[in-house]
Amino acid sequence: MSEYSGDPSEFKVYWFARDLVASSYGSYATKETETLKQLSSQLERSVSDDHTGNDRSLEEQKQLIRESITGSVNRIYRDDISKRYRQTEDLVERILRRVAEQDDIREFRIAIDAVVRTSEILDTTPSFGESEIVEIVDQTLQTENGSLDPSKAYDALFNVDFEGEAYQLGAQREPLIEYVHERMNELERESHIGAQEVARILSGIVQEYERRAGQSRASTAGNVLETGLQHIFNQFDIPATNDQAHFGDLEVDNKVAGPEGAIGFSCKRTLRERFRQSLSREAEIGVDEIWFVSLLMADVSREKVEDISNDGGRIYVPRDSFVWNRYSDIDDLSYTLRPADQFLEDIVEFTAVTADL
């Protein structure tokens, strides 16, 4: 068994796994699953056939890795070297630079199994779909007498985001726990692998899985809020377009247009710096104002509220937030900074649309 100093470069299972799924190297593992499975089997047989661990055997294994991976993609596209082939060559160089001994081949095979299995987990994990979103929105809006409370619209969006994240996280973790337990038992049965090395290997697998799972959750978070916002509009008969439009680097989640005006909405978990990309672009988008809904207050600074104010837009925050308590009495910001419980009422007043509030 190898001795490890704690140098991150030695956590090769993690680095192999990360490179195999990295988009900069063509997301190879997600596209060439069968090739990787066959390569792992061939590497296993090569170890069984030659127990010497000599340099020649290692070089042959490295050559097998190179030929298997680069040979699985098209080299030429439109009479030139394909981008995918160049990405695959870069991937192979990254892999082979980490292979210095037989233990590295073993860890590469562990990484292959990890990315294949965890990709299957991510692909088959149940998503937080429209039916779940609708149920949460309806439960939040409904009062004790069965009517719908328009002042709870912001709370409904917050609950959709909060419970949606918990749902996805739980759905992604449960099969991972089963896989890690299975892998732990397999590794512990190998007499030459100590407990610390088992922990090192499994931590790398879990770390890379969580990175990918986090990206997956982030990519669906916007769609969850868009769906929630549209269902809120539907419940109160507010005639929204339900169009999610992209204008270059700007994303508008929905629009409401009426006789007196038109609004574009940007509903996000946080008000990151990219919010400024929507300022001064109302004409391009086809609205009079852009209104922001930010679920978390950490990024809602006075400077950002002032920027929105200078552009003539609005941002909605909860009354019980420190942002509201701190800035709501400032005259210059009174039009811009609005209480979340008046979100729907303000839409109807601004646009003069007919709604059931």
TrEMBL record:
Organism field: Natronoarchaeum philippinense
Region named Disordered: 43-62
Matching Gene3D superfamilies: 3.40.91.80
Name of the protein described by the UniProt record: EcoRII C terminal
Residue spans of biased composition, Basic and acidic residues class: 46-62
InterPro entries for this protein: EcoRII_C_sf, Restrct_endonuc-II-like
Signal peptide (from-to): none
